[in-house]
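## retry 2 of 3
previous attempt timed out at serialization; input unchanged, resubmitting
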Amino acid sequence: MRILLSLALLVGASSVFAQGRLQAIKDRGELRCGVNATLTGFGFVDADGNYQGFDIDFCKAIAAAVFGDASKVVYRPLTAGERPTALQSGEIDVLLRNTTRTSLRETDWGANFGPTTYYDGQGFMVRKDSGINSLADFEGRAVCVQSGTTTETNLQTTLSGLGISFTPVIFETAPVLIKAYDDGQCDGWTTDTSGLLSYQLQLRQPDDHKILPIVISKEPLGPAVLHGDDQWFDVVTWTVFALFNAEEYGVTQANVDDMLVNAQDPQVKRLLGAPGSESYVQAFGLRADAFYQAIKAVGNYGEIFERNLGAGSVFGLERGLNAQYYEGGLIYGFPFN
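## retry succeeded, writing output
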């Protein structure tokens, strides 16, 4: 497996490695971002044919940092099973498709994961009249799950470990799975809790279903790039940290212009590439205003969350673990020092 992966990396990405991915992206004139196209809130295509969502905004932020233009992105919709090949072959520059960071994905996929942008956990959805209220109630039942995901592995490990006999019904894509569940082919289905919330909106009678108050895994979701290019990994990593830090220091999409001129905090000046502090951003191979452009394009992390998943969205999610560290969460931007 590792030999085949090494060959794939050499053949598919050798030309990019020769010059560095950042320079290749600049020469190409566009960022290629691997995304979900069917997960409302994270990555989906709206009624006008435009990609929207939490992960999409991070694609836009990276494009804005590289080009000063958030529109210079080509979105590559991927199924869960297509993710490793798209990354290994060099077809995409960055993977932002509600993807969990795991040990095997770093080793077998050859992926470097940037900062976690959403802390999630695997849950279960059932019909309210199913009589299912606990994991034990899945005894003898059928559970829908998507192939090529951590949820497939977690389902088998957890229920079998508890001695629960069940029938996994496996589907390659989420839309087919959702229809099967909605048609009654499964007694329940499992994926990340954020995915359950999103896909529930696509059911014929959303209010007839419930998400069980059970979480069976840790699912840290974030961007991934291919091993072998530290500069590009740094660009993706620190673009995310820039959005985290912007929220902490009160830099928003609305006030970033004023902050660029008037901020006195050295951290803010370095973040925005203000006069006298340009070298902190230029060290990444970017223009001094790269992270200013990212914030100007999509706002800070809190704005991205609220717009797509929080109070400004159909979900109205609380921040929970995705709050800043000083508010009891796990979001923590590293310093520009």
